[in-house]
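Per reviewer request, we include the raw input and output of the structure prediction for the construct analysed in the revised manuscript.
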Amino acid sequence: MLYDANINFDTGGHYRAGNGIGENGILSFGVYHSWKDVKSYEIQNETLLEMNVLIKSCGFRYDNKIKFDFDKKGKNDIEIFLSEKL
């Protein structure tokens, strides 16, 4: 029962941690990914950024798609920033 409470608490913490794009990498549900783990990105619908991130866990490697919403007026700034990072 204590294990179940810990999983619920941990999951809730990750959910509330927020998402963001920064100078050193991206944060998605409280999990940090460096720029070297980001394999590609695509801007969809003028306000949705989808990033393909390589996840390494317990000896396995798999791709994960992480999505970010942004304001339409910031699209050019985001494209410039990502072209410098990737």
